[in-house]
Amino acid sequence: MLHDAIQREQRERPGPRDDDLPAVLLGDPRWHAVLNRDAKADGRFVYSVATTGVYCRPSCGARRPRPENVRFHATPEAAENAGFRPCKRCRPKEVSATERNMQLVAKLCREIEDAEAPLRLEELAASAGLSPFHLHRLFKSVTGVTPRAYMAAQRRKRVHDELPRRDTVTAAMYEAGYNSSGHFYADSNGLLGMTPGDFRRGGAGVVIHFACGQSSLGRVLVASSERGLCAILLGDDEAALIRELHERFPKASITPGEEAYRDVVRHVVAFVDAPHTGLSLPLDVRGTAFQQRVWQALREIPAGKTASYTEIATRIGMPKAIRAVASACAANPLAVAIPCHRALRNDGALAGYRWGLDRKRALLDLEAENRPDVRQAPKAGVDG
To answer: Could you confirm whether 87 is annotated as catalytic?
Structure first.
């Protein structure tokens, strides 16, 4: 895609051939952002043009420069220290509309987080000085979720935080902002993945079944609660995978799955070998409110596509939380089902993967080819 865009640019205005350009520029996502005048990249960097002596924001509408004349700078100050002056058209030293929207949504997120009870959309809209319709659209475009979904995530976090601290479930319920026990218990399964009482006891009494199978990526441990898949772990040492499962659910009752569970494992192993086919089994996803937002953003990246940690942080409305996004990816308990392998560094290089970079590379290759038979994989199977 990047290569095609550069070729189109050169056909419109003669210049050096692609093979004359530095390889580092051809692979730089910042150049891709400049070619597409990507407003989402505003505030992340500026670029200077040697022949004009000016620097611009990525979304600048000025004529696209020749790539050999372009240099990138982290901040306007860095560009000026290098001897360039700000563009009068895009005014890169001023806050862009995209940045203003992100700052506004970040302010609304803080209001939601600090509120003792859920806020109505009309209240948020009044605080932002927008109509409810425009506020709803803006909030979702910046964070990737609706205001209501963000409030639900914050409520989930409060429930997680308050249940272990309070003497009774009722006390935790009111502290989390619920005024009705009926609403609280109706929501609790989706919030916790178990009953509030079980959650306060650290998951004691929850039964988790597991079994292992063989995939093209090595051993796969699959575990389920009564609500869905709660772990998909990859590795070479089966004993280590079982230890990891016990460490993740220290107070649950963990037991090997019976004969019928083999079908679940076969289904998951087939999905690991061909992730583009999708997974139809329900998931029991447990994590903090922030982790849930990151994992949801990962699940919205289509098979065969990738996103940088910075892009994911921007999508959830926290553009500076890049390291926290990487940590949430590392904490993912559901390999492939929550596709943290699609998260890359800003330069497009592979970053850390808790199940190994070789597996990450293999998964991306599988999805890029979009064929289940692209690899000569060992036959998928289930122990027994």
So the answer is: no
